[in-house]
């Protein structure tokens, strides 16, 4: 299986010099004789190379409670780069706007080493920040990209996703607008989020899609019947969002946990006490495998995704350094074919309760 060794030793410090690829990247490591591990890369589409695990930055600016201190988050993002993460996920709507500003400030000095993914697609009032539905009209896409470039402190976006398919704008028009932005050098690659297989095909015919980003994890397997086969056939990468099930699959959420009103889980259908109790067997399954592998449930949840296909790149989100390290450690977990059969067979007997995500996600 490709990706068995997600981490490869590529360089050995020798008298202050590195041998091997990426030596410039690791030049900050000082200790002589120190063996450096750099996370293996994966490809989204034919050309876009990213670290096997990315970092979802959304939660740093809200969603799971009030925004975290921005200087702490800038330090966390930069530490992720030091750890070998090259793939950072944000969106216009996170904040809104503030998450792109945070990611832009954190990554501006490291721009040439990393890949930034952002997203357009909502209709956001710039004064009140009110979200008024979807807007993927080409003129809005162009305006959003110009504003995102400023907030991200860059002159190109590596990967630009449509955040949600807009039923009022033909996907061919959206793909055509992104194609023009690519020709203008403002965008490098095109992505879709929560799109159905037919939409992916239509978009790809106009402008090749590098990556589809949709919710995927052991408790949200919606991409498996149609979207993943379409991605495989067309050579498109897949980026699972909420790979830890908004934290549930880590085993840190139980029925006594309450969520403040600024935490989306206070109204997400899968985080009612009834759903948490009903879905506990999934966490127990992960805990069992984790104990055997000397790993954590979070690492098994991410490792399971990595093991599905070599073109899948999860983007777990965290505000905490120790969890960043824990999540990146998933790349070292080796799940055998037998482990994967066991997980699949046990998971297929667990009926997950509650609609995923906001409860409104539907492929279009
Ligand atoms: N395209 C879309 O529509 C869409 C939708 C949602 C998200 N996304 C993207 O996907 C990224 C990841 O998704 P997500 O943040 O929603 O969900 P996630 O990665 O599944 O889970 C994040 C939650 O799990 C907690 N957590 C992380 N690592 C942990 C660990 N090792 N042990 C215990 N708890 C842990 C985090 O809390 P702490 O911060 O306290 O660690 C946070 O509450 C986002 O940042 C965003 O970039 C995209």
Structure, described:
The chain is an alpha/beta fold and 364 residues long. The chain folds into 2 domains: 39 residues, no CATH class; 309 residues, Alpha-Beta Barrel (TIM Barrel), CATH 3.20.20. The protein is 33% helix and 18% strand. The chain contains 11 helices and 14 strands. Strands 6-7-8-11-12-13-14 form a 7-stranded parallel β-sheet, with helices on one face. It has a 3-stranded antiparallel β-sheet with strand order 2-1-3, with no helix packed on it. A two-stranded antiparallel ribbon has the order 4-5. Helix 2 crosses helix 3. The longest helix is centred in the middle third of the chain and has 15 residues. It is globular, with a radius of gyration of 20 Å. It starts with 6 loop residues before the first strand and ends in a 16-residue tail after the last helix. The N terminus is likely disordered. The protein binds NADP nicotinamide-adenine-dinucleotide phosphate. The site of NADP nicotinamide-adenine-dinucleotide phosphate has 29 residues, from helix 10.
């Amino acid at each position: 299986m490709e990706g068995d060794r997600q981490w490869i030793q590529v360089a050995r410090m020798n008298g202050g010099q590195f041998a091997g690829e990426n030596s410039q990247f690791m030049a900050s490591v000082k200790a002589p004789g120190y063996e450096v591990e750099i996370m293996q890369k994966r490809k989204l589409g034919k050309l876009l190379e990213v670290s096997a695990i990315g970092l979802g930055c959304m939660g740093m600016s809200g969603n799971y409670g009030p925004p975290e201190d921005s200087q702490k988050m800038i330090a966390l993002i930069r530490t992720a780069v030091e750890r070998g993460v090259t793939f950072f996920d944000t969106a216009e709507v996170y904040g809104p706007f503030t998450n792109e500003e945070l990611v832009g400030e954190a990554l501006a000095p490291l721009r040439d080493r990393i890949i930034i993914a952002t997203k357009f697609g909502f209709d956001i009032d710039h004064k009140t920040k009110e979200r008024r539905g979807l807007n993927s009209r080409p003129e809005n896409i162009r305006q959003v990209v110009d504003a995102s470039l400023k907030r991200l402190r860059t002159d190109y976006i590596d990967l630009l996703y449509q955040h949600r398919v807009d039923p009022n704008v033909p996907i061919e028009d959206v793909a055509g607008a992104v194609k023009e932005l690519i020709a203008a050098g403002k965008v490098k690659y095109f992505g879709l989020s929560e799109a159905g297989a037919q939409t992916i095909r239509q978009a790809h015919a106009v402008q090749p899609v590098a990556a589809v980003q949709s919710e995927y994890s052991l408790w949200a397997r919606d991409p498996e019947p149609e979207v993943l086969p379409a991605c495989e056939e067309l050579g498109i990468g897949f980026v699972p969002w909420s790979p830890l099930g908004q934290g549930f699959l880590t085993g840190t959420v139980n029925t006594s946990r309450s969520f403040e009103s600024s935490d989306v889980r206070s109204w997400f259908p899968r985080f009612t006490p009834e759903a948490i109790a009903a879905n506990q067997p999934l966490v127990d399954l992960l805990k069992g495998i984790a104990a055997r592998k000397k790993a954590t449930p979070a690492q098994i949840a991410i490792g399971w995704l990595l093991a599905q296909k070599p073109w899948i790149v999860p983007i777990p989100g965290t505000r905490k350094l120790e969890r960043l390290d824990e999540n990146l450690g998933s790349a070292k977990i080796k799940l055998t074919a037998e482990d994967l059969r066991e997980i699949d067979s046990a998971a297929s007997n667990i009926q997950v309760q509650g609609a995923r995500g906001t409860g409104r996600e539907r492929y279009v």
